Amino acid sequence: MAILVDADTRVLCQGMTGWAGTHHTALMMDYGTCVVAGVTPGKGGRHHLNVPVFDRVAPAVAATGANASMIFVPPAHAAAAMIEAIEAGIGLVVAVTERVPVMDMVRVRAALKGSRTRLVGPNSQGILAPGLAKIGVMGTGAERPGSVGIVSRSASLTTEVVDQITRAGLGQSTTVGVGGDPIHGIGMAECLDLFFADPDTEAVVLIGELGGTEEQEAAEFLQSTGLKKPVIAYLAGRHAPPERRMGHAGTITLHGRGDVVAKTAALRAAGVTVVSGAHRVGETVRQVLGAAAR
Amino acid sequence: MNLHEFQAKDILARYGLMSPGGAVAITPEEAEAVARRLGSPMIAVKAQVHAGGRGKAGGVRLVTSPHAAREAAAEMLGRKLVTAQTGPEGRIVRRVFVETGLASARDLNLAVLVDRTLGELVVLGSPEGGEDLEERALKGELKLERLPLGTGATPRHDEALAFAARLGLTGAEGAALAGIVDGLRRAFVELDASLIEINPLALTEDGRLVAFDAKMVIDDNALFRQPELAALRDDEEADPIEVQAQHHQLNYVRLDGDIGLVVNGAGLGLATLDLLREAQGRPANFMDIRTTAKSQHIAYGFGLLFDNPAVKAILVNIHGGGMQPCDTVVEGLGMAARRSGRTIPIVARLAGNNADFARSRFVNFGLPIVECPDMWTAATRAVAIARHGR
């Protein structure tokens, strides 16, 4: 199986009728994802991509039984869309939108407290469970159903690592992009927890980068629960100049905080195999799983 | 987006934060005139650049006469200021802030920011000021006091007073600090800040709390709803090439090496930069093509590399994904190469969406390509070519 999604996942798309929403929703449908509704205020009552469109999330949920939401809403309204989905009680919300204001994400995080929603993103490529469902904007073709879970802060490195794992003769159970922004929903530690509980995941690849302390929090989680399955990590940005934003908003190091050396040390201390070159992830996973099988 | 000290103090004054008072000068004569007008026995002349560590680098001078203020300004204006945060290239000082010099009985430090882990606003404070507080706090030499603010609501008065007491301020001084904290909180929320730092916040001999320095960073993602603040952007402080690249959907950071680097995706870009360094190569830049970039934007990005005389080889690492296939990038490269006319060896690693189509486009453009099957091979080839020409 997979984490976060399963055969009963029914997706509604907020912002489906725009260009990006239409394009990516169609690709998700082609992949076999069960998309049941779209939500665009002012366009309720129509049909788009052969599914009904609603003005609001709650009636869409009531009418279609949607239990997941994909958000393509532009930055100025993305947080309101997330909060609407959270208040409608949707269990999984995936936000692709880039450049959501930080204060808006503070309000979203407050709305998440005590709710039953897991938020993935924003600024995430989404979730891919090969052969089962795609809720996101990632390219497909290189993935194979398999036993390696991937949790990542980077969409491009996820694409790369999926390809390497497939070429190593393995496959993926689920890939999750936690997003490149400093304030986001589900984190690496929570994904590790889900992968450890998933019977079909045998090993987890963690893809981190400089900035923040999320990898250290994942290491603390592993220290407290123990390494229930092999975890292989790659961390980008060892040689990046400090105090510069390197593409992602979350990648600024301040005075040594969030640097890759500290993250590497924390993960190694928790028993994680940290790969030093991004080209060697697939091969390392195969070695680790081979060693575990013997 | 960084604000200058004088801008931050001006804005925060509206939220009740007192500062010594002064004005900006762009010539030594103006600096002297401002100092004369202030009429203070002590005057601070402060370089206005977007970098911390000015004090240690000679960017802040205390003088005792308008004439000396003029001389201090003359020594700063138009010169490069190199601080621990500017990098070796430094920043040209285009303005000085001439401010009344006050004596401090005690320095404190106050900052409002978003705690990434909790996703909440927090005020951090310490009963000391200084330029290296963060390092000292990390080393455990200094305890930063915390006042959590959740989504930015007014803190409870007793909690704010208790926070002030932990910074050593009680009675009227404690109440004054609580007032300042609430003002900074309101400014943070209303203005979409991502950092407000008052370091030092001075307690003067007569018991007033005055901001000697102020740093304020505005969330770039929120500038669309903060037009007044967006207008304060000082593009002279940013690298003009990086600013232009942003307008072309590219995240570009100038570095000082000889290998031009183009990658689609921030994480893959960082990973490729790491491999280049591991292979003893020297990248000339970091360039992440955003998913929103079209081929003409990408052509602009490659043009930056063709225009950089230091670049001896270009390393292209593209993993075509759902938002951007490989051929779009190659099309941009071909356009730039034709425009430039300069021939630079190109090492390419192409994988994923439309990689084969991209290869055929390389041939059509007649570009001198060395194609490599993986990132490490590509990085080592690029280093060899930059060093030995092959």
TrEMBL record, chain A:
List UniProt keywords, sorted A-Z.
Ligase, Nucleotide-binding, Tricarboxylic acid cycle
Name a single GO biological process. tricarboxylic acid cycle
Q: What GO CC terms are in its UniProt record?
A: succinate-CoA ligase complex (ADP-forming)
Against SMART domains, the record matches this protein to: CoA_binding
Q: Which GO terms describe its molecular function?
A: nucleotide binding; succinate-CoA ligase (ADP-forming) activity; succinate-CoA ligase (GDP-forming) activity
- What region holds the CoA-binding domain? 4-100
Q: Keyword Nucleotide-binding: yes or no? A: yes
What is the superkingdom listed in this entry's lineage?
Bacteria
State if Ligase is listed as a keyword.
Answer: yes
Read off the InterPro entries from this record: Cit_synth/succinyl-CoA_lig_AS (IPR017440), CoA-bd (IPR003781), CoA_lig_alpha (IPR005810), NAD(P)-bd_dom_sf (IPR036291), SUCC_ACL_C (IPR005811), Succinyl-CoA_synth-like (IPR016102)
Task: Quote the catalytic residue positions.
Answer: H248 (tele-phosphohistidine intermediate)
Q: Which family does it belong to?
A: Belongs to the succinate/malate CoA ligase alpha subunit family.
Its recorded name reads Succinate--CoA ligase
Q: In which organism is this protein found?
A: Prosthecodimorpha hirschii
Automatic annotation (TrEMBL), chain B:
Q: Name one GO biological process term.
A: succinyl-CoA metabolic process
Pinpoint the ATP-grasp domain residues. Answer: 9-228
Query: What Pfam families does its record include?
Result: ATP-grasp_2 (PF08442), Ligase_CoA (PF00549)
Keywords of this entry: ATP-binding, Ligase, Magnesium, Metal-binding, Nucleotide-binding, Tricarboxylic acid cycle
Single annotated GO MF: metal ion binding
**Gene Ontology cellular-component annotations:** cytosol; succinate-CoA ligase complex
What PROSITE patterns does this protein map onto? ATP_GRASP
NCBIfam families found in the cross-reference section:
PRK00696.1
This protein is called: Succinyl-CoA synthetase subunit beta
Q: What high-level taxonomic lineage is stated for the organism?
A: Bacteria, Pseudomonadati, Pseudomonadota, Alphaproteobacteria, Hyphomicrobiales
